[in-house]
Backbone:
């Protein structure tokens, strides 16, 4: 049985927050985040990069170290690698959104389809590197914006239980995941 994930959940949740936000600056920031999340869903590098400043800074914090790409070329390469590793089919179930005039903060659970090799690289206990797994982890992402209201990058913090990886039978993989392997 296919395990359903909703790739549009993140941007639809941010859209609900946009609908009840009055500040023009915060509305623009929320719309930029929606555009960014939709570009991630569609795995469109050009659309995604269009949501960022010319020299974005990503900070991915794990075990006290920052692993995020810095600069447009590095960020583009990061997203290109994400597409090549077939990590783009995911659901971010945002439970909390905090907005001020400089940042948006989102918090929730991420579930994603990953190969065994990728899942192990993330720290999950998986047995078969060739199999596909549905992994889950908790994430808080700070989305900073400059004075002009443009997205500066992402500051992400995540935590995971290494045993939250479920092996998915090939016949149970969703079409959105399988489509990544079509030539």
Residues:
């Amino acid at each position: 049985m296919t395990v359903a994930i909703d790739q549009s959940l993140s941007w639809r949740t941010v859209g609900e927050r946009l609908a009840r936000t009055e500040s023009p600056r915060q509305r623009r920031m929320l719309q930029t985040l929606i555009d960014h999340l939709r570009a991630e869903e569609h795995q469109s590098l050009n659309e995604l990069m269009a949501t960022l400043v010319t020299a974005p800074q990503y900070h991915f914090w794990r075990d006290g170290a920052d692993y995020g790409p810095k600069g447009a070329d590095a960020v583009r390469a990061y997203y290109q690698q994400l597409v090549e590793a077939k990590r783009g089919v995911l659901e971010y179930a945002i439970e909390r959104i905090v907005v001020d005039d400089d940042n948006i903060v989102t918090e929730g659970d991420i579930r994603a389809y990953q190969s065994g090799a990728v899942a192990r690289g993330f720290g999950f206990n998986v047995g078969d590197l060739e199999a596909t797994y549905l992994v889950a982890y908790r994430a808080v992402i700070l989305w900073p914006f400059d004075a002009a209201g443009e997205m500066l990058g992402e500051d992400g913090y995540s935590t995971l239980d290494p045993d939250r990886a479920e092996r998915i039978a090939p016949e149970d993989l969703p079409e959105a995941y399988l489509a990544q392997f079509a030539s």
